[in-house]
From TrEMBL:
The keyword Metal-binding does not apply. The chain crosses the membrane at residues 12-29. This is Extracellular solute-binding protein. The keyword Flavoprotein does not apply. Keywords: Membrane, Transmembrane, Transmembrane helix. Gene3D superfamilies: Galactose-binding domain-like, Periplasmic binding protein-like II. Pfam families: SBP_bac_1 (PF01547).
């Protein structure tokens, strides 16, 4: 019996293994091939089908300039070709016209002979007349000198005969030059820190290129024979022009052509030379964000097992098109060398990383326009080649420079394919909405195929476009089954499913919207390509390449050592750690990179000037419970930064914080901020926090679409009534207005509701915070207007505004400052086609428009347990001052890029950061109406029930007054419980009368 049972069990196990293997094979087949590949093969050619949408004239593509690739494709189909043998240099002072304001002249600038023209105003411009001998393509370049500004790259755009030939010509970046200001420093724990970066001023030369690196060669402009006007417009940062050059396209030889030239000239491979250049020692870079980084792999040079060593270069920061870094090296004899690198390219799953490689300022051969660094989960070391044969580089004896620039040109066509498809999906969605409305009846047969021309063929063609993009990725070297391809595959399969069952499309409109968002995010994600480099190798052919990684035993040993050190090492301390009794302890609830900047500023500025030593420790962002635990256990710091805006009152009512207004200069320090920004931190007549950051909302709008709709600049909505008049016009064209609503983040509900209440001079609470005031007439009217946007005007309850703003579906809406940063950095096709202004408001009896709104930020607080309160206050006053906030904002932007722009609450510091003048003027106008809400104990019930009120009215159809009464009843219960818990004498107290945020 036992033998029989064992046999049955063995057979059972074999069957399970076979089934598992079959399942794995099926999964592998699906992941590498895709279950709809056969369906794609069966789709007709559709070569004679008109896939033009009936709304094509409303597509942004019809109003914006074409992309560069489409511009080139159209001209080449007409027979346009490169010219040859022409080069014209136009000195900057030989202009035909220039703007009266924003331009100036400099003599002998940094060794330049004669005068040069400077464009130092944001709207300044200069025009040059050029005469070309024949029809064809020409390239443009200029020598330029970046003048002292706000540390950003110089941005210019170029018009030919008054027109932008393609949208990339509207935004071109000319980088500055940066270097390390000195050697790296170490704290008293042995950890190494990046030195400050300083700008290097000097003349540079650059062709007119794509700012995002999605085109691998300099732009070609088509010019007909004769005279043309080239206009250069300044968009950001001051710079001088040395010469403008117009020339026939430079023909870079292929490697095969270069090898033939080597043979003709008799160049021979060198022998016995091996040169290693540590990448962290970059001599120049285009961006101060490019810096040394740490890697813990044992073969990375050098390695310190006990402390942080910055032994590599690049990483996440080295990812945006146009960013470059340069290294210097020297070879002992002239001849042919291999050039390679030890690098890590594990940032995008399966996607090779590209860089343009230049030797001594020139691309040596065509393949180096887009040198590939293949994907691998681990370090690699090999020659700069993506094929079996290693490239040889001819180098003369002596010093040379090696420059690498971020380049994604090989994927440019893929990105364009995908973005074109998202545009077509957007147009199709709007066609469907015009038939079904925003809330289609799921039980009705809409018969879309009879109403929308060529519906199924158009969907099939969209699916084919995505399938073509996937195949191009495979050709590029992306392995089948890569997660980076799955987004395209899922979108393709969704489209095929919709084409198979068109009657289900109305119920899948949300899926179409989500598809657009995911495809837009996919393009943005793959456009940022990072790589980390340990060192470069310049060697003779006969010398072997080193090993890329340490032996597995050594790697295991390093892992064990790191684990053992983790029990004794304090990871929360940043920089120098002091044991003195006189030191003040500061905890910062932000990322480690942010905190390192603060500590560096403290050690370089604050401590030398004040004599006060500071220990800075990092705690996880948003982990406010750690502060509460520290206070109750008697381990609270002296000062905490990055404290969420609703937290200070929770601590203050428990006696945990110092009343900052007891310091004699408090009023002077408080004047640095907008008065309305201080409201949430007042309790019982005291002031318990200083604001660090201040969020704010603005009205963003597409100028091109508004003009198309007949809405002129002076007709952009200033009041909510004008917004409601505009919404029907938008919806008639299949567009919509955006107002933020985050259903999965009820804490945002108060911020979404506050403008409608504050603009009526209403309040959330009455009787010094004892009772909710949501049952007031002002609150009732505010809630009716707020929810009416969704119930009466049917605007979208939730949307990805950034992507739908780009597609044109939501050409106007309210959003916070992060949208400004995203549009400024990641939407080059919209350059010059969008603006922002203060949010709409309500007209007051005096004729002014009340635009009051808040934007709760982060704060700095001092704990009552602080031993030296005067020293802690001196630190807080230094930290919130304009100079410190400006430097922190600049250093942060230098480290992490424009995406991390610091939204300081200090008004003066905000004006010093690198905003464009028109934009900062709009922000400051909105700040004049800044009014924050009160924070009271039990206020979380207000947040919760405002979200519930919205849900009840908008989703369940409850009468506003009924929903409000239910909510107020529950809020008042909680407020009463908190009064009883902390004593009946509790009040919100000391509230600032801002007159509803009025000027």
């Amino acid at each position: 019996m036992l033998r029989r049972a064992a046999k049955i069990l063995r057979n059972y196990m074999v069957s399970l293994i076979v089934l598992a293997l079959v399942a794995v094979a099926i999964l592998y087949w699906n992941s590498t091939r895709g279950f709809d590949d056969l369906a794609m093969a069966s789709i007709p050619d559709y070569s004679d089908v008109d896939e033009r949408s009936i709304l094509a004239d409303q597509d942004i593509k019809s109003r914006l300039e074409p992309s560069y690739l489409k511009y080139m494709r159209a001209l080449e189909q007409e027979g346009a070709k490169d010219t040859s043998g022409f080069r014209l240099s136009v000195p900057s002072m030989e202009y035909a016209a220039r703007s009266e304001e924003g331009t100036s002249v400099a003599s002998s600038l940094d060794g330049w002979t004669g005068d040069v023209l400077i464009l130092d105003g944001e709207d300044s411009w200069v025009e040059y007349k050029v005469n070309v001998p024949e029809d064809g393509f020409y390239q443009l370049a200029m020598s330029y000198y970046a003048l002292e500004g706000k540390r950003s790259a110089i941005v210019r755009n170029v018009q030919i005969d008054g027109e932008f030939p393609f949208f990339q010509s509207k935004k071109m970046e000319f980088q500055r030059m940066w270097r390390e200001a000195g050697p790296t420093t170490k704290d008293n724990q042995g950890n190494e820190f990046n030195p400050r970066r300083e700008e290097v001023f000097g003349w540079q030369y650059r062709e007119f290129r794509d700012a995002e690196g999605k085109v691998s060669e300099p732009f070609r402009y088509y010019l007909s024979k004769g005279e043309h006007t080239i206009r250069i417009n300044a968009m950001r940062e001051p710079a001088a022009i040395g010469e403008l050059e117009v020339f026939s396209p430079v023909q870079i030889p292929s490697y095969e052509q270069l090898v033939a030239e080597y043979d003709e000239k008799g160049y021979k491979p060198t022998k016995g030379h091996f040169i290693k250049v540590q990448a962290e020692g970059s001599s120049l870079r285009s961006d101060p964000t490019l810096r040394r980084v740490e890697d813990r792999e044992p073969a990375t040079e050098p390695l310190n097992s006990k402390a942080i060593t910055l032994n590599s270069f690049g990483g996440d920061a080295w990812r945006k098109g146009g960013q470059w870094a340069e290294w210097e090296f020297e070879v002992p004899e002239s001849g042919l060398y291999n050039i390679g690198a030890r690098f890590g390219a594990w940032f995008l799953n399966g996607i090779p990383i590209e860089r343009m490689v230049m030797i001594d300022g020139k691309v040596p051969f065509k393949e180096m326009n887009h040198a590939k660094f293949p994907f691998k989960q681990g370090w690699q070391l090999h020659s700069l080649t993506d094929r079996d044969e290693e490239y040889l580089f001819y180098l003369e004896e002596g010093k040379h420079t090696l420059r690498m620039e971020v380049q994604v040109g090989s994927l440019g066509e893929v990105f364009e394919n995908v973005l074109d498809t998202t545009s077509k999906i957007s147009l199709l969605s709007r066609e469907i909405l015009q038939i079904t409305g925003t809330n289609p009846d799921p039980n009705r047969d809409w018969k879309l195929e009879g109403s929308i021309p060529n519906l199924v063929p158009r969907i099939h063609l969209m699916a084919r476009s995505l399938d073509d993009a996937m195949n191009k990725l495979y050709d590029f070297g992306v392995p089948k089954g890569s997660s980076e391809v799955s987004t395209l595959g899922e979108a393709r399969d969704q489209l095929l499913a919709m084409a198979a069952k068109t009657d289900l499309i109305p119920s899948r409109l949300a899926s179409l919207t989500d598809m657009q968002s995911s495809l837009g995010l996919w393009v943005n994600g793959l456009s940022t390509q990072s790589v980390i480099i340990d060192y470069f190798v310049i060697k003779s052919v006969d010398h072997p390449w080193p090993k890329a990684e340490a032996p597995i035993i050594k790697r295991f040993g390093t892992t064990v050592m790191d684990f053992m050190y983790s029990f004794t090492k304090d990871y929360s301390g940043i920089g120098n750690v002091y044991d003195d009794e006189e030191v003040i302890d500061v905890w910062v609830a932000r990322g480690r990179d942010w905190v390192q900047i603060i500590k560096q500023m403290v050690d370089e500025d604050f401590t030398p000037e004040s004599g006060i030593k500071v220990n800075v420790n990092v705690i996880p962002a948003g982990a406010m419970q750690l502060l509460l635990l520290a206070q109750t256990s008697g381990l609270a710091p002296d000062v905490a930064l990055g404290v969420e805006g609703e937290v200070p009152i929770d601590f203050a009512v428990r006696g945990g914080l110092v009343d900052l207004s007891t310091f004699s200069d408090y009023e002077e320090i408080a004047s640095r901020f907008r008065p309305g920004a201080l409201i949430p931190y007042r309790y019982n007549g005291g002031n318990f926090a200083l604001p660090e950051t201040q969020n704010f909302s603005m009205l963003f709008y597409r100028t091109d679409i508004m003009e198309e709709l007949g809405v002129t600049e002076d007709q952009i909505p200033q009041t909510w009534e004008e917004v409601m008049n505009l919404i029907p016009l938008l919806q008639q064209s299949g567009m919509d207005f955006f107002y933020p609503h985050a259903p999965n983040a009820p804490n945002n509900a108060v911020n979404e509701f506050a403008p409608f209440l504050f603009q009526r001079n209403g309040d959330l609470y009455k009787d010094d915070g004892r009772y909710s005031d949501l049952d007031s007439h002002e609150a009732l009217e505010a809630i009716k207007m707020w929810t009416g946007l969704y119930t009466n005007y049917k605007i979208e309850k939730q949307a990805d505004f950034y992507n739908r703003f780009r597609t044109g579906e939501m050409p106007i809406g309210v959003a916070d400052y992060t949208t400004y940063v995203m549009l400024s950095t990641a939407a080059p096709e919209l350059t010059g086609w969008w603006k922002m202004q203060p949010i709409p408001g309500l007209k007051q009896s005096d004729g002014k428009i009340n635009r009051s709104t808040g934007g709760l930020g982060q704060t700095a607080v001092m704990f009552n347990s602080a031993k030296n309160k005067d020293a802690a206050w001196e630190f807080m006053t230094w930290w919130t001052g304009a100079d410190a906030q400006e430097r922190f904002g600049s250093e942060l932007e230098s480290l992490l890029g424009v995406e991390a722009r610091w939204n300081t609450a200090n008004v003066e510091a905000l004006t010093r950061l690198p905003w464009q003048s028109e934009d900062i003027d709009a922000v400051l106008e909105q700040w004049e109406w800044f009014r924050e809400r009160e924070v009271v104990l039990g206020g979380y019930y207000t947040t919760r029930h405002i979200a519930n009120i919205w849900n009840e009215i908008v989703l369940n159809g409850v009468i506003p007054r009924e929903a409000i009464e239910n909510g107020v009843r529950e809020i008042n219960k909680e407020l009463r419980k908190k009064r009883e818990e902390f004593g009946d004498d509790y009040t919100a107290g000391g509230r600032l009368d801002t007159g509803g945020g009025a000027k």
